Amino acid sequence: MTPFRFPLEKVLHWRRVQLELEENELQRQAAALAELDRQRAELEAAAIRTEVQVREWSPLAGGDLAALAGFRVHVQQEERKLGERRAERQKQLDGQQQKMLEARRRCRLLERLRERRLADWRMASDRELEQFAGECYLAGVVRQRG
User: How far is 77 from 82, CA to CA, in rounded Å?
Assistant: First the structure.
């Protein structure tokens, strides 16, 4: 009885490594997207804190209001930049997700092929063992009779 050998084992291993790399890249890009979301939330919180602080000032001068207006413009520009970066990062993440899904599909295809080949090998092995057992039984019967 020959041991099971899958001729595409190296390819399967390579596909698994490739899948792991794609999954790691997807996680890295998702973390980068989460970081952009965190930066945006931090910027919004800073803007709100500044608004509250300026409104609490007792002697409020025109220059203070002008500075606040300038700060609002700055915050809006930064939010726009972060929004653009987030949209680009989301696009990259979506592309990476497609790459990862394709790598998973290719890996799974080889895994299923390996499983089928292993099942076929087991059936052939079982048949061979059954045939051998039958031959042993008949040889024993022949020995007893004669």
Answer: 9
Tokens of 11: 């390819």
Alpha helices in the chain (DSSP H): 9-56, 62-145
Query: For residues 113 and 115, what is the distance between their CA atoms, to the nearest angstrom?
Result: 5
DSSP state of 4: P
Q: pLDDT per residue over 12-34, tens digit each?
A: 999 999 999 999 999 999 999 99
25-82: pLDDT as tens digits: 999 999 999 999 999 999 999 999 998 998 888 888 888 889 989 999 999 999 999 9
Contacts of 136 (CB under 8 A, 6+ apart): none
Token pair in block for residue 51: 């608004």
In this structure, the number of other CB atoms found within 10 A of the CB of residue 24 comes to: 11
